[in-house]
Amino acid sequence: MAWMVRALAGPVLWATLFSGVYALHGLGCARGWQQQPVLWGDLHHMALWALWGAGLAGHVMLVRTMPCDQGIRRWLIVAGAWIGLVSSAFTLFPVTILSTCL
């Protein structure tokens, strides 16, 4: 049963990160974070980049802790970890980099 949890960890982390980034985007737009300068950008983009970066780091940690055994269980764990990483990288890139508040 533990292998099933590990196989679903990547997609669950992606879903959590997806929800968190979009929630943070809405919150930042509603509170006017895009007008508050921070370092080389604004507070809105810094918050989005920080959350996205932390999520990608979590995905990389999942990918780096692959099991050593063989068989379908290992393949499912590896596939889940890579699916989560690639999904988080590609689906959240436009939101964090090109986010605009109208």
Can you summarize this structure?
Helix content is 77%, strand content 4%. The protein is built from three helices and two strands.
Low-confidence stretches: none
Task: Please report the distance between the alpha carbons of the first and last residues.
Answer: 46 Å
Outline, from the CA principal axes? elongated
Output the helix-strand order: HEEHH
Q: Give the C-alpha Rg.
A: 16 Å
Please tell me the total number of domains.
1
Q: Oligomerization state of this entry? A: single chain
Beta-strand percentage?
under 5%
Number of contiguous helices: 3
The secondary structure category is mainly alpha
Which strand order does the major sheet show?
1-2
How many β-strand runs?
2
Indicate the mean pLDDT. 89
Helix content: over 70%
User: Largest sheet, if any?
Assistant: 2 strands, antiparallel
Walk me through the structure.
The protein has 102 residues and is mostly helical. The protein has one domain. 77% of the residues lie in helices and 4% in strands. It has 3 helices and 2 strands, in the order H-E-E-H-H. The protein has helices at 2-31, 43-64, 72-98, and strands at 37-38, 41-42. A two-stranded antiparallel sheet has the order 1-2. Strand 1 (37-38) and strand 2 form a beta hairpin. Helix 1 (2-31) packs antiparallel against helix 2. The termini are far apart. The mean pLDDT is 89.
